[in-house]
Amino acid sequence: MTIKINTAHAVSNNAISDLMPQVGDALLKIHQATGEGHDFLGWVDLPSRTHEELLDNINTTARDLRHECDVVVCVGIGGSYLGAKAVIEALNNSFAAYTRKDKIPTILFAGHNIGEDYLFELTEFLKDKKFGIIVISKSGTTTEPAIAFRILKEQLEASVGKQVAARRIVAITDAKRGALRQLADQEGYKTFVIEDSVGGRFSVLSPVGLLPIAVAGYDIRALMEGALSMQRDTVNANATNIAAVYAAARNILYREGKKIEILVNYNPKLHFFGEWWKQLYGESEGKDHKGIFPAAVDNSTDLHSMGQWIQDGERTIFETVLSVDAPEHSLVIPSDDQNLDGLNYIAGKHIDFVNKMAELGTRIAHIDGGVPNITISIPRIDAFYLGQLIYFFEKACGISGYLLGVNPFNQPGVEDYKRNMFALLEKPGYEEQTEKIKSRL
Ligand code: PA5
User: Fold this and answer.
1) Among 170, 95, 102, 87, CA closest to 131
2) Which three-class secondary structure state does DSSP give residue 87?
3) Distance from C-alpha of 242 to C-alpha of 396, rounded to nearest angstrom
């Protein structure tokens, strides 16, 4: 079994076939590293070249953290947190935060915002907990995680002493550069390296994603096996390469005026998968005043908030539905003698059957309403299929960026807010910008 794509309600097969030569060019740029951003293609063969020793090392480190800690805080932002968060939320029991499994620490996240209340409440929560920290920053200089790490490191050291704290902190960063690398070497933390050629948003299948996922108790080998199967299946420019088909369909729709893509799920466990996907596509394609705006909804929840707009608003959208074939558990709607709620007509049916009818009914309504529909079917939510899905979207993103004519692997626009923020914070070295920006206020 594998994940599948259906583009029949979005674009014609002929239109996809016509675009295959350009898809082939994009694939060549990726495989032969001849396109813009070719220094950042390390993710392409990560599944096939990740050594067993690295996976063993990650699993051993995860086991040590689990042994020492009741809570592990993952500190990072953007690509340094979203992939791990997406996979852990997808695999976790929905109530994992309230019901700890034996020997599995609660995984929390920090450094992905600058919320004073968030950090205060986190430090309060951690006061009576045995906690550890995985701090992740490729550059090692990003402000949000640096602030969170400074606060949490101080708290941990004050609570258990520097020596034990150093045992409970793992840093994932550049091999040589950046403040985090220097700090980790000086304090003697265990470290993992983010390769230069693997950009943040393409790093979930590196230690960046794998260590937090392993600490949460999930099978990183199965995740990598799923990714590897997709790596092997997405090499050629033809109709069996689902990444090629998805990238082609998006490009055709974009040229037809569909400027917004909504990633839709019908399973609340996939909410953060949508957040990860938004970063992957938003940061990769939104440049040179081009790019599909990536949005996401959780259905059926959001049918009661965004459903009206999607059905009847401006016709510049298309949908990509993540459709999970089978749930993990079984629950049937009971019959009721009085039937006051009128639900006996679906008594005996599985909840998932009702969900599937909501999905199908919505798909038909949206297609009728002029919203092209791409559906990606996933046999079930497990580590293997999440690995497939991650690699599928990464590969399609690279193809899609090149089809659009942008460099999918840089993010120059992200620097602008940082420059202004540093100027406003009066960071040393920004004196000229500080003067300029303050004169505008
Ligand atoms: O995808 C990216 O490159 C970014 O989203 C980064 O992951 C994010 O800005 C965090 O950077 P860093 O890991 O250097 O702290």
Assistant:
1) 170
2) helix
3) 8
**Is residue 130 among the annotated active site residues?**
no
Predicted TM-score of the model (pTM): 0.97
CA 176: distance to chain centroid?
Answer: 26
**In this structure, what are the phi and psi dihedrals at residue 283, rounded to the nearest 5 degrees?**
-75, -25
Is residue 304 annotated as part of the catalytic site, yes or no? Answer: yes
Contact predicate 168/156, CB 8 Å: yes
Probe ligand 1: pick from 85, 109, 142, max atoms within 8 Å of CB?
Answer: 142
Ligand 1 lined by 142 (C-beta under 6 Å) = yes
Pocket test for ligand 1, best of 139, 144, 208, 397 (most atoms within 8 A of CB): 139
Classify the phi-psi angles of 33: left when phi > 0, otherwise alpha if psi is within -120 to 50, otherwise beta. Answer: left
Distant-in-sequence contacts of 27-31, Cβ < 8 A, 24+ apart: 27/235, 27/236, 27/237, 27/244, 27/399, 29/402, 30/395, 30/398, 30/399, 30/402, 31/235
Report whether 125 contacts 97 (CB < 8 A): no
Collapsing DSSP to helix, strand or coil, 10 comes out as: coil
Tokens found for residue 60: 């051993």
Cα 214 to Cα 88: distance, rounded to the nearest angstrom: 9
Among this protein's residues, is 418 annotated catalytic?
A: yes
Q: Can you read off the two tokens belonging to residue 389?
A: 């899905």
Residue 217's CB is within 10 A of a number of other CB atoms, namely 19
CA distance 341 to 300: 20
* β-pairing verdict for 4-9 and 106-110: unpaired
Q: Which residues contact 436 (CB under 8 A, 6 or more apart)?
A: 423
- Decide: 433 in ligand 1 pocket, CB within 6 A: no
Q: pLDDT (tens digit, 0 to 9) for every residue of the chain, 441 residues total? A: 899 999 999 999 999 999 999 999 999 999 999 999 999 999 999 999 999 999 999 999 999 999 999 999 999 999 999 999 999 999 999 998 887 667 899 999 999 999 999 999 999 999 999 999 999 999 998 999 999 999 999 999 999 999 999 999 999 999 999 999 999 999 999 999 999 999 999 999 999 999 999 999 999 999 999 999 999 999 999 999 999 999 999 999 999 999 999 999 999 999 999 999 999 999 999 999 999 999 999 999 999 999 999 999 999 999 999 999 999 999 999 999 999 999 999 999 999 999 999 999 999 999 999 999 999 999 999 999 999 999 999 999 999 999 999 999 999 988 889 999 999 999 999 999 999 999 999
